[in-house]
């Protein structure tokens, strides 16, 4: 009798499925759609208004990816014009708490990140650039 050994996920391995799963939420727009749908079922136009800065094309792509991955349910009502609503699936609901933790962290560290960016931007990067250029020329 053969026994199958279950392989532990290793996110650092290129072929690990955990990378694909992480990729579900590691883009710019998916967390924002999650936050919006956490408030309840919404139509496309409502999501477009709620998420400032997202284009129709990007919202469409994000919703399709989320639906494909089981995070969002899309319901089309047979009326003229068609009414389409989006809501989180039970799987999507399981992401609410982890996504909330990211939002809490972001809100709690706004000033620290802004300060770090200012400090970095005010540094004189010319010296480093000159040193790198010198090393490249030496090759």
Keywords for this structure?
139 residues; mainly alpha; 8 helices; 3 strands
Structure, described:
With 139 residues, the chain is mainly alpha-helical. It has one domain: Arc Repressor Mutant, subunit A (Orthogonal Bundle), CATH 1.10.10. The chain is built from 8 helices and 3 strands; from the N terminus they run ααβααββαααα. A hairpin with a 5-residue loop joins strand 2 and strand 3. The chain is extended, with a radius of gyration of 22 Å. The mean pLDDT is 90.
Overall number of structural domains: 1
User: How many strands, what sense, and barrel or not for the largest sheet?
Assistant: 3 strands, antiparallel
**Count of DSSP E strands?**
3
Q: Structural class of the helix and strand makeup?
A: mainly alpha
Individual helix count: 8
Oligomer: single chain
Portion in beta strands: 5-15%
CATH C-level category:
Mainly Alpha
Distance between the termini: 60 Å
Could you say which overall geometry the principal axes of the C-alpha atoms support? extended
CATH topology-level fold name: Arc Repressor Mutant, subunit A
The topology string of helices and strands comes to HHEHHEEHHHH
Helix content: 55-70%
Q: Main sheet: which strands, in order across?
A: 1-3-2
Overall mean confidence score, pLDDT: 90
């Amino acid at each position: 009798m053969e026994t199958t050994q279950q392989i532990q996920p290793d996110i650092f391995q290129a072929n690990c499925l955990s990378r694909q799963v992480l990729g579900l939420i590691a883009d710019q727009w998916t967390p924002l759609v999650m936050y919006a749908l956490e408030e309840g079922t919404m139509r496309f136009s409502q999501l477009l208004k709620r998420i400032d800065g997202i284009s129709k094309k990007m919202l469409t792509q994000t919703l399709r990816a989320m639906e494909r991955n089981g995070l969002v349910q899309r319901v089309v009502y047979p009326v003229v014009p068609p009414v389409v609503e989006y809501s989180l699936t039970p799987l999507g609901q399981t992401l609410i708490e982890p996504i909330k933790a990211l939002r809490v962290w972001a809100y709690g560290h706004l000033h620290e990140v802004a300060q770090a960016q200012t400090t970095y931007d005010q540094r004189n990067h010319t010296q480093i650039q000159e040193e790198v250029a010198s090393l490249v020329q030496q090759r």
